[in-house]
Write a structure and sequence with these properties.
Length: 683
């Protein structure tokens, strides 16, 4: 799992002298008289594992918050539980890794006629969560269901919610915070949380590994608490696009995904910890972006299929002449989206290179777009030649059941097929030869689909295929480009790109803003997984000033800024862009590059009206009114971490007018409008 593990000290839990196949750590001896192994972690947390029953309980400040937890594996048409075994032995080691100093515990279980089961736990003194997985060892095992964690959790009171997290950002799917009530069963992709929105305490469970398994997190409410199951092997056509069951992993030793589990005083802190844990457990494969926060323009906002060389050059001129101040790190990106092939004649890419050179001459960075794992051509002609190879597209199509995987109008290509790889070679060489410094890659979820089989016989699951394809792509792109993902798996893509769109295509209306901010409300924590997340194309167009402010701010609080108006033509969007995009007060927030935290998490499929983040000595609070009627928003100081016994100076960054508030912020917003406030200590 980790790049490095060090084991300077072995502690003795129970008697054992054998070596567990596939893990290779020697066991040692001593039996706790109670049969309970106590595993401390975090500040007030303890796991109590029963060697008699094969179950565990988790205690927070002396009170049980999770209990009756077992591990379940379905292999070779049989189901094995950690409760089934007659002999359990424990060993522990001191460890030091990316998470810090901690301990590794291994519970090895045996029974006659059963494969050996091992549960592994990683714990750290400074972290209020633990990591766990389950392994199975035997002969010729095969499984597509491995659950390291199944059991019960303690009830929460108040406005209790369970969050549905989508697998990707395709088909305009939304996050949803659902009321957690008896008989309510919710399955979330990769990560899930149950929390009290008022007090904000809650649980977070999720996978921190995404190279083999798709993980499901199922919560169900009962009269006294709830039930939780976290397992590798989750497929649902409406969520992760798979119409067939998860692929199987096989071998004499098989392992589940590594699972994050914790109880937190603030579920939002737990989600940010989860995002950080993913980046530690499965470190980025892509180069780390150490330059300034990306800002710039993308042609899909308005131009779309009307993109031409002349229009793109006029946009460059507008940036060079009228938006000189819209820069971070001394530059901005000018990104050609789909239909850049309007600048290509046959195999002549010289005009594309000419455009890239023109950008650089103006002090800007050229960007391009590509979908590496999809076929947008005529599906009735499978014999079409694949660029850069002698293969045909029909040979590359990913086979699913008796058909293929078609979504968004495109057909999936097998990421492990040599024809797909030669196509990647061909286009990445062109992009690099032309001199592009940014690439937006799209429809990546097509590479993660479960299939009947893959060209590479060692690949048996969609996530294994995704890892193969994305690693190959990143290797070919190298470290000279900013790599930005559009439609893609939310968690698995963290290893491969510098920046990722938080939602799907959004442009100019207040409805688009609300849709985008639904993903920020419940997915802001991905700012800890990626260098940057962004709110997609910011289009002002002919909308009202209020809608323009809301769309503008939706990007500011997400972490980067990519505008999308047609600046080859003059309009009111040009005036607003000059006024807002070059304002140092707003650019300072973009420079910080991190998404704001939601004020509330009980908005169902909607979006929070408030988001905030502390930057330097100031607290920034963004407020939104998504409806057409005026709205008064009151935000208590203690809700945003301010002292209710002090006065604060609150400055509207659009008007620069300041007001002193005590105990709470009160703002009157017009219909379909937004405001960004800078809050500092009053003098």
């Amino acid at each position: 799992m980790f790049l490095k593990r060090f084991f300077p000290t072995m502690a003795i839990c129970v008697f054992a002298t054998q070596v567990f196949a596939g893990i290779g750590h020697k066991q040692s001896a001593s039996v706790p008289s109670s049969g309970i192994v106590s595993i401390g972690y975090g500040s007030h947390e303890v796991i109590r594992y029963s060697l008699q029953t094969g179950t565990l309980a988790v205690y927070h400040q002396g009170k049980p918050v999770m209990y009756n937890i077992e591990a379940i594996v379905k292999a070779n048409n049989k189901t094995y539980s950690s409760k089934d075994y007659t002999e359990r032995k424990c060993s522990s080691w001191d460890i030091s890794d990316g998470f810090g100093k901690g301990k590794k515990y291994m519970i090895t279980m045996r029974s006659p006629g059963l494969p050996v089961m091992t549960q592994i736990f990683y714990t750290y003194a400074g972290r209020d969560y633990f990591l766990t997985s389950v392994w199975l060892a035997g002969k010729k095992l095969s499984s597509n269901y491995m659950a390291p964690l199944q059991g019960d959790f303690a009830p929460l009171t108040g406005d209790v919610r369970s969050l549905f997290v989508p697998f990707d950002n395709d088909t305009f799917i939304s996050y949803e915070s659902r009321v957690f009530q008896p008989l309510a069963e919710i399955t979330s992709a990769e990560v899930g949380t149950v929390f009290n929105n008022g007090q904000r305490n809650g649980f977070v469970w999720g996978s921190v590994e995404h190279g083999v398994w798709k993980t499901g997190v199922r919560t169900q409410a009962g009269k006294a608490g709830g039930q939780i199951t976290v397992w590798g092997g989750y497929t649902d056509e409406k969520v992760n696009r798979d119409p067939i069951e998860h692929g199987k992993i096989s071998g004499d030793v098989i392992k589940s995904p590594q699972i994050f589990a914790g109880y937190f005083a603030d579920w939002r802190d737990g989600m940010e910890d989860y995002g950080k844990a993913n980046r530690i457990a499965d470190p980025p494969y892509v180069h780390n972006w150490t330059k300034a926060t990306p800002v710039g323009w993308n042609s899909w906002g308005v131009m779309q299929d009307k993109l031409t060389y002349d229009k793109a050059v006029k946009v460059v001129d507008f940036f060079a002449d009228s938006l000189k101040g819209f820069r971070l790190g001394g530059t901005a990106f000018i990104d050609l989206d789909s239909y850049w092939d309007h600048m290509v004649k046959g195999s002549d890419y010289s005009q594309l290179k000419q455009f890239a050179n023109y950008c650089k001459a103006k002090g800007l960075q050229p960007g391009v777009y590509w979908a590496p794992f999809t076929d947008w051509g005529d599906k009735g002609v499978p014999g079409r030649k694949v660029e850069g190879s002698d293969y045909t597209y029909g040979e590359l199509w990913t086979k699913v059941n008796n058909s293929y995987h078609d979504l968004d109008g495109a057909r999936a290509l097998d990421p492990t097929h040599p024809g797909t790889l030669r196509r990647i070679d061909y286009f990445t060489r062109i992009f690099k030869d032309c001199g592009f410094k940014m690439i937006k890659i799209d429809f990546l979820g097509h590479a993660a689909i479960e299939a009947n089989h893959f060209y590479d016989p060692t690949v048996t699951t969609g996530m294994q295929a995704y890892r193969k394809g994305m690693e190959y792509l990143v290797n070919k792109l190298g470290s000279d480009m900013l790599i930005y993902a559009a439609i893609s798996p939310s968690m698995a893509t963290g290893r491969y790109v510098n920046s990722r769109r938080i939602a799907c295509d959004a442009f100019k209306t207040i409805e688009h803003t609300r849709y985008t901010l639904n993903s920020v409300t419940y997915g802001w924590w991905q700012t800890r997984l990626y260098n940057y997340i962004d709110a997609d194309h910011v289009v002002l167009d002919h909308q009202s000033d209020g809608e323009n402010r809301a769309r503008f701010l939706s990007s500011i609080i997400t972490g980067t800024f990519i505008t999308g108006d047609d600046f080859s033509e003059y309009g009111q969007w040009s005036v607003k862009a000059r006024q807002w995009y070059q304002d140092p007060a707003f650019l300072a927030i973009v420079k910080n590059g991190k998404a704001f935290m939601p004020l509330e998490g009980n908005i169902e499929k909607g979006a929070s009206n408030g988001f905030y983040r502390k930057i330097g000595n100031a607290l920034y609070l963004a407020l939104f009114n998504y409806d057409q009627t005026p709205l008064n928003l009151k935000v208590d100081f203690n809700r945003i971490g301010l002292s209710p016994n002090r006065s604060y100076e609150v400055t509207n960054l659009f008007t620069q007018k300041s007001t002193k508030y005590s105990q709470a912020v009160n703002e009157q917003l017009g219909g379909a409008d937004a405001v960004l406030l800078k809050i500092t200590t009053a003098h």
